[in-house]
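Objective 1b. Sequence-to-structure analysis of Ribbon-helix-helix protein, CopG family.
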Amino acid sequence: MAVRKVAVTLPEELFEIVERARAVEHRTRSEVIQEALRTHFGEAVYVPSAEERHRLLAGLDEAAQDPERSRDWAQVRAELHPEQ
């Protein structure tokens, strides 16, 4: 899939919403904004499974207890969905 880079100016309140979402979901700014656009235009939206949510919460707890053991979200996602 070809990609294009764009610059977007956001009001402070929207920027903060994006930042909170990406921190909680361990996703990039681009992923959060892409999902928002897909939702607005009616395309399918990524919704984490119960297992993904469970693992995410466990990972957040683990990272809070030992930040040196935290892992990259792309690695975790690849483990959850090896077929992709």
